């Protein structure tokens, strides 16, 4: 064997002795950067450092997991989240939110670390902050951060960012309410818009003035992008520019047509800008939006302005408009209202509107023709023409009016809209959250599909946790986690949902006072109510859903008037066998006389005082036509003139009835009887300044819509609203359920931190007649005002001097020596136990007035104080009447709240 010569390793220098260290490399830095002047390094803590022993009690990680397997080539089954709390590890799946396993882990973890939990192999991917974990952002498609709402989508590879502009040459046009400024000179070129200085050739000729005045800026030969309307005009409404544009294209300002913008109020201008940014994809990952403004704020006008702008303009210069055809879907009763609104604001000459009704059934006129750019159709008819609409590939935007009707994912109207494959979708609804968060999820997933993840994950990880945290007996952990999920949901939805209340119209409308009137049941009414609850029918209804619903219907009629049980029209909604078993339980005089109804007695006193003491008119609303029949007989007996609108009124005659009532005086037409369900939305009954809701509906949106009928644009007089409830009966329990639903809606939609003061056990107590002096609702609040009109009299003692009490300035307050402090401490602790979160602001904004204090007021100061709190001379006289059936009152005035 031939031996090869030995070669020393490359890392050993052959020219240097092995026993001497290698010479140091000479410093090459200059004197300016010598070691003497060198700055010390800044210590930075790596986010992937293992947690210290003090933080090991609570750590969170994103991980990869798989089932234990003996395969040679292993793959990961999915992503997950590992929560390490107090040495206990809990693994959950990121896609479904389900718990995959538990185990013990008492050592710090680093990215790349592996362990086994609950039979699953885990590899740590990265650390996760506690805030992100509690908010549930790892379960959503996108993280909701406050700043996310103000950033646009990242530019794709085909788009190029706009070059920077010389800030000295740019100028801002306007500023919206949310601080978003519309910049004019942010185009690719920094040249200002050049408008023609010389008259065009056609201007020198004699011509007839056109019928329509054009607001379009004349074309010029300038290469600078020229907007359709002049952005330099006073009060010009300029939309936000996109962050990028395609190669070879330029950005041009989108300016709302002055024909419409001159009619927009401040909140409407902000609403149009918000909707535009949403449908253009500037606010979140989707192109949908929800306009949740309360009734009367002009959602229709804002939507028409948006549609007209998108049909005529595009922010990319010399490109086709953003929208070619628009589809408006609404309840059948509002189709004609939308048609009138388009004609009112744009006329018949500017745009073609196709109304799909019984007369116009040829949908191809819209889908295939060029005359019509907008189609208005009802939800019911939409399902019948779904196949024809799918053939039209040019529907670029869908507006769903009263979109809360799309409550379930299998709703036929929703499926029909989704089949059109239109990404730009807008929901208009004053009450987007009516019953629970599942319906709210449906609305959000409709406008921006997939943004909240899977329905099952949302129900378990958001809805269940939020609802559990709002219960009075929620633990501290449930409160913390539920609040974090609620804050995350609010932050995410605020990117594409805008909500304004009627408070923005306070400077345009007269003040409004709302009274919730608790009426004491008459003796005959209470006796009949107790007999029904004590009968075997009630025991059978508790175990039978159908029987329970029938009993609820019976009790609702009992609250309105026992005489309703004898009405022949009730055979449709109540079985005759049930009526035959119930009628013997009611006294014959109660069935034959309307005087047995406490609400009819209060209504009689109210309309009499309004008719004799004022020149105002009144609207009376009920959910039942049989109840309207009884009220109609009452008005006939009093010889009061009235008009009536219910389900039997033809659609063609409804608007003329409304206009006749608004034009007439109180002598020729004093009252307007309205069926709440048949009246729908959009009715403007500003001819009346008082409205009485005779009964209450399970859905708070129905009552809110009815109350908004008189407090709208054009109203000149202060408005008074009366809601009649039978104290202690089913009416009050339904009202409590309304408050619970509205508290949830306020918390998520209005972003108000409120808590439910009513537990599930209390709300289950529907079938009971509570005959205490004060209503159960007031006692559930834990309020200490004792029905004297103040919000909490126990909290006012510290701010009242002894001299003021001696002078009689505060007659309702007691001396400190006269107060049982132990009792007050017990009441305060009980109130804190019932509601660990802030009190329900909705009812604490009302003045709580016991009618007994009004009658007992003798001194002039006391009388004046009660009159100020009631804020209604008519109602005050009814309260003072001997034998008045009003026992308690909740009053709130919009004028006092603004002050």
TrEMBL record:
One of its GO terms (cellular component) is nucleus. Residues 215-225 have a biased composition (Low complexity). One of its GO terms (molecular function) is ATP binding. Residues 280-450 form the Helicase ATP-binding domain. Pfam families: Helicase_C, SNF2-rel_dom. CDD domains: DEXHc_RAD54, SF2_C_SNF. Keywords: ATP-binding, Hydrolase, Nucleotide-binding. It comes from the Eukaryota. Residues 1-51, 215-234 are annotated as: Disordered. Residues 30-45 have a biased composition (Polar residues). Residues 602-764 form the Helicase C-terminal domain. One of its GO terms (biological process) is reciprocal meiotic recombination. This is DNA repair and recombination protein RAD26. It comes from Polyplosphaeria fusca.
């Amino acid at each position: 064997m031939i031996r090869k010569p030995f070669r020393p390793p490359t890392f050993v220098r052959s020219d240097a002795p092995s026993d001497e260290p290698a010479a140091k490399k000479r410093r090459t830095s200059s004197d300016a950067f010598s070691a003497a002047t060198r700055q010390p390094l800044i210590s930075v803590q790596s986010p992937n450092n293992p947690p210290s022993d003090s933080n090991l009690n609570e750590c969170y990680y994103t991980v990869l997991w798989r089932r234990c397997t003996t395969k040679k080539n292993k793959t990961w089954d999915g992503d997950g989240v590992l929560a390490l709390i107090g040495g206990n590890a809990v693994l959950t799946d990121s896609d479904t939110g389900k718990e995959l396993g538990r185990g013990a882990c008492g050592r710090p973890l680093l990215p790349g670390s592996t362990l086994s939990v609950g039979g699953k192999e885990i590899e740590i991917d990265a650390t996760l902050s506690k805030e992100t974990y509690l908010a549930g952002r790892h379960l959503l498609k996108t993280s909701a951060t406050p700043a996310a709402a103000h950033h646009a989508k990242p530019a794709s590879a085909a788009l190029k960012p706009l070059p920077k502009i010389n800030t000295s040459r740019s100028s801002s046009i306007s500023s919206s309410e949310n601080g978003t400024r519309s910049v004019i000179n942010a185009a690719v070129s920094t040249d200002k818009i050049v408008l023609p200085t010389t008259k065009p050739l056609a201007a020198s000729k004699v011509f007839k003035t056109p019928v329509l005045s054009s607001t379009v800026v004349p074309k010029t030969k300038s290469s600078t992008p020229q907007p359709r309307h002049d952005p330099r005009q006073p009060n010009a409404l300029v939309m936000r520019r996109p962050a990028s544009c395609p190669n070879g294209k330029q950005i041009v300002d989108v300016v709302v047509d002055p024909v419409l913008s001159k009619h927009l109020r401040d909140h409407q201008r902000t609403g149009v800008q918000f909707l535009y940014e949403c449908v253009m994809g500037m606010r979140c990952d989707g192109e949908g939006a929800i306009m949740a403004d309360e009734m009367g704020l002009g959602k229709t006008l804002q939507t028409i302005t948006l549609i007209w702008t998108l049909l005529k303009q595009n922010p990319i210069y010399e490109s086709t408009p953003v929208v070619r055809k628009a589809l408006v879907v609404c309840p059948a009763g509002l189709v004609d209202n939308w048609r009138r609104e388009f004609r009112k604001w744009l006329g018949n000459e500017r745009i073609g509107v196709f109304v799909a009704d019984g007369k116009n059934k040829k949908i191809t006129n819209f889908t295939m023709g060029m005359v019509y750019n907008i189609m208005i159709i009802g939800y019911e008819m939409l399902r019948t023409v779904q196949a024809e609409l799918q053939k039209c590939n040019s529907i670029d935007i869908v507006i769903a009016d009263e979109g809360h009707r799309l409550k379930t994912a299998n709703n036929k109207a929703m499926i029909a809209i989704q089949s059109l494959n239109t990404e730009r979708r807008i929901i208009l609804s004053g009450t987007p959250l009516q019953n629970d968060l599942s319906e709210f999820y449906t609305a959000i997933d409709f406008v921006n599909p997939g943004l909240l993840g899977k329905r099952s994950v949302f129900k378990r990880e958001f809805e269940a946790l939020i609802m559990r945290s709002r219960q009075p007996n929620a633990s501290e952990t449930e409160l913390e986690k539920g609040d974090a999920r609620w804050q995350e949901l609010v932050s995410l939805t605020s990117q594409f949902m805008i909500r304004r209340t009627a408070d923005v119209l306070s400077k345009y409308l007269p003040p409004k006072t709302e009274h919730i009137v608790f009426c004491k049941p008459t003796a005959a009414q209470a006796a009949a109510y107790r007999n029904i609850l004590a009968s075997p029918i009630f025991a059978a209804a508790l175990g039978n859903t159908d029987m329970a619903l029938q009993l609820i219907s019976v009790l609702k009629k009992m609250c309105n008037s026992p005489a309703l049980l004898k009405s022949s029209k009730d055979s449709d909604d109540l079985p005759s066998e049930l009526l035959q078993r119930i009628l013997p339980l009611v006294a014959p005089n109660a069935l034959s006389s309307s005087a047995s109804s406490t609400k009819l007695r209060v209504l009689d006193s109210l309309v009499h005082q309004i008719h004799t003491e004022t020149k105002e008119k009144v609207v009376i609303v009920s959910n039942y036509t049989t109840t309207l029949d009884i009220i109609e007989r009452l008005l006939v007996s009093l010889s009061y003139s009235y008009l009536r609108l219910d389900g039997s009124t033809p659609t063609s005659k409804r608007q003329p009835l409304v206009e006749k009532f608004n034009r007439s005086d109180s002598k020729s037409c004093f009252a307007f009887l309205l069926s709440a369900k048949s009246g729908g939305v959009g009715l403007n009954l500003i001819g009346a300044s008082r409205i009485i809701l005779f009964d209450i509906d399970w859905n708070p949106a129905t009552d809110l819509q009815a109350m908004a009928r008189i407090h709208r644009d054009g109203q000149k007089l202060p408005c008074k609203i009366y809601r009649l409830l039978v104290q202690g009966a089913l009416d009050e329990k339904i009202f409590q359920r309304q408050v619970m639903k509205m508290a949830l809606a306020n918390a998520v939609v209005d972003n108000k931190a409120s808590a439910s003061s009513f537990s599930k056990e209390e709300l289950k107590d529907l079938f009971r007649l509570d005959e205490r002096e004060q209503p159960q609702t007031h006692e559930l609040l834990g309020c200490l005002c004792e029905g004297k009109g103040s919000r909490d009299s126990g909290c006012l003692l510290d701010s009242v001097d002894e001299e003021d009490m001696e002078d009689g300035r505060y007659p309702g307050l007691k001396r400190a020596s006269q107060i049982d402090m132990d009792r007050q401490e017990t009441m305060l602790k009980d109130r804190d136990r019932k509601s660990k979160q802030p009190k329900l602001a909705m009812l604490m904004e009302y003045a709580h007035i016991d009618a007994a204090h009004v009658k007992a007021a003798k001194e002039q100061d006391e009388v004046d104080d009660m009159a100020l709190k009631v804020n209604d001379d008519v109602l005050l006289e009814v309260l003072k009447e001997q034998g008045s059936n009003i026992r308690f009152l909740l009053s709130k005035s919009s004028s006092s709240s603004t002050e």
